[in-house]
Design brief:
By secondary structure, the chain is an alpha/beta fold. The protein contains 5 helices and 8 strands. Helices cover 23% and strands 15% of the residues. Strand 4, helix 2 and strand 5 form a beta-alpha-beta unit.
Length: 267
């Protein structure tokens, strides 16, 4: 299991862990600045999917079951500590399903589940042909990643980096495409939805997560698109109710005033 967890600011004595699950094609690097926004009693742990970073030599997950099986095995390593699960985009589905599977495996419920920039999995039927998806060409996938802010403009002239980015992105899209939500799936932990005011997610999309938790629910709209803004993203834990009040409420927080536009979809 070497390299599965990255801890940017080790706090082995901290009683609580924020465990982050990445988006399609993503690694742990975008989440590392979050360590500075967490309280002293919380350690940041980043789960590294196969096929990238420290696990570059490990084959990509074959399908959703393979990916979640590995994540659940890793979660056992955090036994004895309170865990807040947080996933962004595809990672939101990973975080939700991981909480469901952890309960079935006899593990303690997470302290909270935070799902960021993702539609509720039971609504995915209408997203079959919405980009990005595995049937897109390499160029279409690159255009999506650049448009959503997942890739910086600096790599546009680096063919090898672009090739690698598309390879990882496509592998994760295939994994996400094999996810099958089960109608009985629910989490009992407090559930919070984070979504950008300029992303392709409406207030109704965010509220669709509400029936998937039997605990408190909270939807929070923040500034920016699929990856929020350059100032919001590195401090995103400050928007997480688990680190402010302990439990989400049913109140929906508005974003700062401004027009909404539809620019990106879940990946």
């Amino acid at each position: 299991m070497s390299g599965q967890f990255i801890r940017p600011l080790p706090r082995p004595q901290a009683p609580r862990v924020l465990l982050c699950l990445s988006f399609c094609g993503g690694g742990t690097a975008p989440f590392r600045p979050w360590a500075d926004s967490l309280p002293e009693d919380t350690e940041l742990a980043l789960y590294c999917y196969p096929g990238r970073e420290a696990r570059y030599s490990v084959p990509f997950a074959r399908d959703w079951e393979d990916l979640l099986g590995g994540a659940l095995a890793a979660l056992h390593g955090l036994a004895g500590r309170r865990v807040v699960l947080c996933g962004h985009s595809m990672g939101a589905w990973v975080a939700f399903d991981l909480a469901v599977r952890a309960r079935r495996a006899g593990l303690p419920d997470p302290e909270a589940v935070v799902v960021s920039a993702a539609r509720a999995p039971h609504t995915r039927a209408g997203l079959v042909d919405v980009p990005p998806h595995p049937r897109n060409t390499d160029q279409e996938l690159l255009d999506w990643m650049l448009g959503a802010g997942q890739l910086s403009e600096a790599v546009r002239g680096e063919p090898e980096l672009l090739r690698m980015a598309v390879e990882v992105f496509r592998a994760d899209l295939c994994v996400a495409d094999s996810y099958r939500f089960r109608p009985q799936d629910r989490v009992t932990a407090p559930l919070q939805v984070l979504y950008g005011e300029d992303d392709d997610l409406s207030d109704t999309d965010a509220d669709a997560w509400r029936p998937l938790s039997t605990g408190p629910f909270k939807a929070t709209r923040v500034a920016g698109g699929h990856f929020y803004t350059p100032t919001v993203w590195p401090r995103l834990p400050e928007h997480m109710a688990a680190f402010r009040t302990g439990t989400p409420t049913t109140r929906t927080e508005p974003a700062p005033p401004g027009p909404r536009r539809r620019t990106a979809t879940t990946a």
